[in-house]
Amino acid sequence: MNPHRRQRQHSPRGLYLVTPDDADCGQLSARVAPLLPFATWLQYRNKAADPALRRHQAAALQAMCAEAGVALIVNDDPALAAAVGAAGVHLGADDGDIAAARALLGADAIIGVSCYDDIDRARAATASGADYLAFGAFFPSSTKPAARRARPELLRQAASLPLPRVAIGGITPDNAPALIAAGADLIAVIGGVFDAPDPTAAARACRALFT
Ligand SMILES: Cc1ncc(COP(=O)(O)OP(=O)(O)O)c(N)n1
Ligand SMILES: Cc1nc(C(=O)O)sc1CCOP(=O)(O)O
Ligand SMILES: [Mg+2]
Where does the UniProt annotation place the signal sequence (predicted)? Predict the structure, then answer.
């Protein structure tokens, strides 16, 4: 079995690092490499890249993740996840359905679903075979300023569902403890790590919140 997919059998916890849009392949790899020791999962997300660049960057990150023992999850695009042998895919409301992704990626793949502030969407995703549920945005996000906002109480409510809960949106090492106390199993972070004065220290601090 792919060792990165084996995590699906356990209860994943920790930092779910998400990449910033960065068109420079070498720079993206150099920014991510020192952070991988602190990440449970890495999501490749680049909303600005064309398909060729996305393919190139996803393949480079997959090689780094395989080396580091971190599961790579590709945002939006099950076909790209399959092409580079990633561990899974993250699907939002506009990104296609779980069944199609499952058919393409197989039973072991990690398929995550955005639930925003909507517990009914989380129930439906659970019934459709999702592997984790993402809620947010919990804090103002400079990456996604117009993101719908969610309250920590939603994480408590989602404890009734049998899947890992991911919190996203404006998360930093300073504000994450309230979300973890509310039940977040993973914190998904872009700016709170990559825009920090010392990204490695920020990633380490996120990781330490789960120990
Ligand atoms: C872990 C995680 N949670 C939520 C999202 C957002 O997905 P989506 O709503 O499809 O928005 P985009 O990221 O595609 O702009 C995510 N990517 N990851
Ligand atoms: C990609 C994304 N999705 C969100 C949601 O609420 O679904 S918030 C968000 C942005 C996450 O980046 P940062 O950590 O910089 O705020
Ligand atoms: Mg999406």
Answer: none
Question: Is 185 part of any known ligand binding site?
Answer: no
**Does the residue 162 lie in any domain?**
yes
Q: What total number of domains does the chain contain?
A: 1
pLDDT at residue 3, rounded to an integer: 44
- Alpha-carbon distance 93 to 39, whole Å? 25
User: Is residue 3 situated within a structural domain?
Assistant: no
- 144 catalytically annotated: yes
pTM to 2 decimals? Answer: 0.96
CATH number (domain holding residue 106) = 3.20.20.70
- DSSP codes joined into one string, 77-116: -HHHHHHHT-SEEEE-TTS--HHHHHHHH-TTSEEEEEEE
The residue whose C-alpha atom lies closest to atom 1 belonging to ligand 2 is 144
Catalytic site includes residue 114: yes
Task: Ligand 2 pocket test: pick from 19, 113, 141, 179 the residue with the most ligand atoms within 8 Å of its Cβ.
Answer: 141
108 appears as a binding residue in the annotation: no
Ligand 2 atom closest to Cα of residue 139: 16
Query: Which residue positions in the chain have pLDDT lower than 50?
Result: 1-7, 9
Quote the tokens at residue 157. Answer: 């409510």
Within a domain: 7: no
